[in-house]
Design brief:
mainly alpha
């Protein structure tokens, strides 16, 4: 991997974590058969993904999921507070009820 390509990528995606996520997603897409956006021969998918990002082969809308701006965060759906996974208890109310009643019986 050419360090100058990474330097050019950071101009497009300044956050390195976001850059890694975007490059990994594009590399997976290339491995699954997506058409390359650049005509670069003799490169593996990781290098090709970084070169595509560095050369501006993507629009801002395509890179938006990897940007940590407030506009990207407002597109997330609101969490449903009735879903057990989002409440943090990890189980449904029906499964939690017997455990609570057995604790009360022990006291």
């Amino acid at each position: 991997m050419d360090p100058l390509v990474v330097f050019d990528c950071e101009k497009v995606l300044p956050n390195r974590f976001a850059l890694v996520l975007a490059a990994a997603a594009r590399s997976r897409a290339l491995n699954r058969g997506a058409e390359p956006r650049l005509e670069v021969q003799g490169r593996n998918t990781s290098d090709l993904a970084l070169q595509e990002i560095a050369r501006g082969a993507f629009s801002k809308d395509e890179l938006a999921p990897f940007l940590f701006a407030s506009t990207a965060l407002t597109r997330l759906p609101a969490p449903n507070s009735t879903t057990p996974e989002l409440r943090g208890d990890g189980c449904s109310d029906a499964a939690a009820a017997p455990a609570a009643s057995s604790r009360e019986a022990a006291h």
